[in-house]
């Protein structure tokens, strides 16, 4: 006997053994010919069209059992919702032998078991659309009891399991007992499909680029590192796919995009997971002004696809995705929220400003990181409605083209919504000499101890030397966008399997 099993788990294993002894396979191999789904039946069935539902085949997980002796009312949950089965002993076992009903229905079933049923649809005396079962088939015996939740008469949960340790670690069980969780992930897929349709309709090409990279480029972040035995060389999990997509622009594609699974060996919190999804796209012959306009169009389309309106509820706020969005330079944003003009400050001046604002000015930080620190701590939270923060200092943006008219700045924007960055975009740097100098500046920061500074990617520089057309590119955080559009407070709520500490063994 397994001593770590609960009483319920022991009882279920005993039932399993009895079913097998009675010749009933609790895990049958043949396909089960499901023809109908719960919600479709309940939405469409009437007394007038009952002939259409005179023979149905459904399957799902048992969520409640009401034993009335020779009659059982069993509610099953399929991929679309919950429906009731009316199970009568003499219908299931019309002959003299009632052993199947006794062995399976009466004594063999538990909450969480997966069963199939054939029969016809009718409306009970209490007015509930149900299936009058003519056969019952055990498809999977559940050996672990589900968490107990309370449901109303329609089967809707009103006492959800909220323990995050359980919900994130055992997402499979969370999805069973908290039906609204599934809705979030369905919306995530609708959101991604909406983006694909939008970009494909514009003539963009979806591509794949390497996850294992010899140089972790395209962002300022700390990478995960591994070792390739056959090549005897270190490899990095990608922190961004930017430099590979730009190589494709060099190669002659005018518009490429990728939903990139990225990995950063950094902290975890409500908006950060070490593994996350970013959409990046690059379009030749465009600039960051064009990119702002196309981004407004995309976000408006996503809001309409998910909600039917551009007004979206996020927490206690209503956020409008109706274009156009507000635009303000990063220097003006800092001045507006701190009353300090940092536009002409050198590194020492910025350290003084940080001290004045009560911020930690890490000795490893250069000018770009110090400005980023001030904006992140004192300004970012104020931008609830969609706002483009534009025209960043060159030190913050080593892959961005210098501003066409403002010395010391680059053509870059970040899209802020609900106090968080949702997108980052540039007029891309395509001058290989300037790019080499920017990479060399990053190496100097790395030598000062900045473990997020960029490596020099010599192959990317070689690609630029062949000539990359004027290009605009963008990265959009898909997980944060899903959080926003589904009103979820944590990134863990929009990832099926968020990263967690190792589970303690029993």
In short:
By secondary structure, the protein is α+β, with helices and mostly antiparallel strands.
Radius of gyration: 29 Å
The main pleated sheet reads as: 8 strands, mixed
- Categorize the overall geometry: elongated
CATH homologous superfamily (4th level) name of the domain at 238-325 and 385-493:
Bira Bifunctional Protein, Domain 2
Number of helices: 15
In CATH, the topology of the domain at 238-325 and 385-493 is named BirA Bifunctional Protein, domain 2
Binding site for Mg(2+) 1: 414, 421
Enzyme class: ligase
EC number: 6.1.1.6
Domain Aminoacyl-transfer RNA synthetases class-II family profile: 191-498
How would you portray this structure in words?
With 506 residues, the protein is α+β, with helices and mostly antiparallel strands. Among the domains are: 7-146, Beta Barrel (OB fold (Dihydrolipoamide Acetyltransferase, E2P)); 238-325 and 385-493, BirA Bifunctional Protein, domain 2, CATH 3.30.930. It contains 15 helices and 18 strands. The chain has helices spanning 7-21, 38-44, 89-92, 99-106, 164-169, 171-177, 179-201, 242-250, 288-307, 330-338, 347-356, 367-378, 432-447, 458-466, 478-486, and strands spanning 56-67, 71-77, 82-88, 114-123, 129-140, 205-206, 212-213, 225-228, 233-237, 255-263, 275-284, 311-314, 317-320, 326-329, 387-390, 412-417, 420-427, 471-477. The strands form 4 sheets. Strands 6-10-11-18-17-16-15-14 form an 8-stranded mixed β-sheet, with helices on both faces. The chain has a 5-stranded mixed barrel with strand order 1-2-3-5-4. A 3-stranded antiparallel β-sheet has the order 7-9-8, with no helix packed on it. Strand 16 and strand 17 form a beta hairpin. The longest helix has 23 residues, at 179-201. The protein is elongated and about 95 Å long. The model has no long low-confidence stretch (mean pLDDT 93). This is Lysine--tRNA ligase. Its EC number is 6.1.1.6. It is found in: Cytoplasm.
